[in-house]
Amino acid sequence: MYACVVNLMETVMKTWILALLTATALTGCGYNDFQRLDEETKSAWSEVLNQYQRRADLVPNIVATVKGEANFEQETLTKVVEARAKATAMQVTPETLNNPEALKKFQAAQGELSGALSRLMVVSERYPDLKANKGFSDLRVQLEGTENRITVARNRYIKSVQEYNVLARSFPSNLTAMAFSYQPKPAFAVGNEAAISTPPVVDFNKK
Question: What is the number of domains present in the chain?
Answer without folding.
Answer: 1
